[in-house]
């Protein structure tokens, strides 16, 4: 798209090398490029890629050290979660948040399908929203099908480039269609959605919102995580723990069994959510991948 908003279909010519990054794809969704229009045509050739403000990657394959850039230049990342089917685990949300922290991308949590929650789930939702807001995250609840709270949802997306994340079946396409019917994204039946791993595409796609802004959808990418980090780094990706940096007795405190730990003290006196702390510990100990 050029500065006037006109679209141009462009080819890549030659080889692009991005210094320091061994990537299987030279160009990703969200990249800002320079291009040379073909004379008298709407098409063109990409001649350069601007430096990326940020980007998210995944490994090309498990064994490979090469990475695949999923998307770039995002203002925020949003996880769509639900306490209805297919229920999103807190572990999944926390991994999403940790990844956003690692990439320095602001994160938003949206709970969808609130029309289906029973009393107990609504109580739990309240608790979760509290917990995530205390940790410094934007949290929102919506119902795509009942069109509840969609103005706030739309407001958060306006004029921003947002990466959309969340398990298949949580209602991502329904939500986007609800605020932008012209996109007419394919909505899966619940039974289809339950066949995890069946995806039509594994590439990120970008949609423009008529009121301003872009959405990057990454179907088939279950988690955009997979940043490698050391054990001691993990607590830097929990803002409420990061805020206590240097207040533990030991500089390299992992807030697990160490004496004189300020984080544990704050958990005990209720200033840090015990649920978040437990998720932190299971991530630290590598026990979080089960849910
Ligand atoms: N009851 C209810 N169902 C919803 C809601 N949002 C989505 N769904 C249903 O959930 C299923 C999966 O939705 P879809 O948008 O395809 O999910 P996606 O895989 O995340 O894109 C469809 O059957 C939708 O009709 C909601 O707010 N309430
Ligand atoms: Mg979808
Ligand atoms: Zn500590």
Account of the 3D structure:
It is globular, with a radius of gyration of 21 Å. It is of the alpha/beta class and 291 residues long. Helix 1 packs across helix 8 (274-284). The longest helix is centred in the middle third of the chain and has 16 residues, at 119-134. The strands form 3 sheets. A 6-stranded mixed β-sheet has the order 8-7-6-9-11-10, sandwiched between helices. A 3-stranded mixed β-sheet has the order 1-3-2, with no helix packed on it. 29% of the residues are buried. The two termini are 40 Å apart. Helices cover 25% and strands 19% of the residues. Bound molecules: guanosine-5'-diphosphate (GDP), magnesium ion and zinc ion. The site of guanosine-5'-diphosphate has 20 residues, from helix 4 and helix 5. Magnesium ion binds at residues 172-173, 219.
The counted number of beta strands is: 11
Looking across the biggest beta sheet, what order are the strands in?
8-7-6-9-11-10
Averaged pLDDT: 86
Task: List the ions, cofactors and other small molecules found in this model.
Answer: guanosine-5'-diphosphate, magnesium ion, zinc ion
Largest sheet: 6 strands, mixed
The SS-based structural class is alpha/beta
Q: Which term fits the overall shape?
A: globular
Question: Beta-strand percentage?
Answer: 15-25%
Helix/strand order: EEEEEEHEHEHEHHEEHHH
Our count of helices gives 8
Low-confidence stretches: 192-200
Helicity level: 25-40%
| Rg, Å, rounded | 21 Å
Distance between the termini: 40 Å
């Amino acid at each position: 798209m050029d500065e006037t908003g006109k679209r141009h279909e462009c080819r890549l010519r030659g080889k692009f090398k991005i210094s320091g990054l061994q990537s299987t794809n030279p160009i990703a969704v969200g990249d800002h490029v320079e291009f040379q229009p073909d004379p008298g045509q709407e098409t063109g050739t990409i001649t350069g890629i601007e430096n990326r403000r940020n980007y998210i990657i995944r490994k090309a394959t498990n064994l490979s050290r090469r990475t695949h850039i999923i998307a770039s230049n995002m203002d925020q990342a949003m996880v769509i979660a639900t306490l209805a089917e297919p229920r999103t685990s807190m572990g999944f949300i926390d991994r999403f948040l940790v990844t956003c922290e690692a990439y320095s991308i602001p994160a938003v949590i949206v709970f969808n399908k609130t029309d289906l929650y029973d009393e107990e789930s609504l109580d739990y939702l309240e608790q979760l929203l509290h917990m995530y807001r205390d940790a410094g995250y934007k949290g929102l609840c919506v119902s795509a099908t009942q069109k509840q709270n969609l103005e706030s949802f739309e407001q958060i997306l306006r004029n921003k480039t947002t990466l959309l994340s969340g398990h298949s079946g949580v209602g991502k396409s329904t939500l986007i269609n609800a605020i932008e019917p012209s996109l007419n994204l394919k909505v899966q039946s619940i039974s289809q959605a339950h066949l995890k791993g069946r995806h039509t595409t594994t590439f990120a796609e970008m949609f423009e919102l008529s009121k301003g802004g872009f959405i990057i959808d990454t179907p088939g990418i279950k988690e955009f995580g997979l940043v490698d980090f050391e054990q001691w780094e993990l607590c830097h990706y929990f803002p409420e723990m990061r805020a206590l940096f240097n207040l533990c007795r030991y500089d390299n405190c992992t807030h697990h069994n160490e004496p004189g730990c300020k984080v544990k003290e704050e958990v005990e006196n209720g200033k840090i959510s015990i649920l978040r702390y437990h998720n932190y510990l299971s991530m630290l100990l590598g026990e979080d991948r089960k849910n």
